[in-house]
# Entry
Amino acid sequence: MQQQNSLMNQLQPDIQPLSSEQQQQVVDETQVCIKRAELLLAIHIKPVEINFTLKGRAAGMYRVKHHGSRFFGREHREIRYNPYIFSKYFDDNVKTTIPHEVAHYVSDMIYGLKNIRPHGKEWKTIMQTFGADASVTANYDLSGIPQRKKSLYSYQCNCREHQLGPVRHNKIKNNRGQYYCKHCKQTLLFKQADTELA
Ligand SMILES: [Zn+2]
Ligand SMILES: [Zn+2]
# Structure
């Protein structure tokens, strides 16, 4: 038991992830923020998944997954929080990360992500509506966190899943190219597109 504890301490020397009470508090604050957007902007937006599965250097991320075809597909939206980084700067993240991610979600609901820039004027206006400082978050974004939209496309062959970037994805979409799996020699078929905003 003691040995296990010291091993844990070595892996995570300082930062403890959010406790379940803190996670509930973050979920509640996020819901309050969404409710405020609905009242202030006189809109109704559907519920979004909120989870704590984010790893890496960003405290939060807004992600849209598109399954299937453009016209008959399903979309799934999530606000993801990083339980370690959020915990390390808890009060700051409540003040900045929550409105930051909610503003991505709300601007997606109002305008559609493909019609706006990730931290453009639509997003900034929503941040101002929240009374959140968009310039503070600009600093936070630049510290190693990608500012641009990241799109990843999942393709499937007979044996595994492949991730393609936007260039190859667009070639396939416009019938200017086909890609084959090195292992099973099958044509890659489109499965899912993910858009992520930090
Ligand atoms: Zn294969
Ligand atoms: Zn952002």
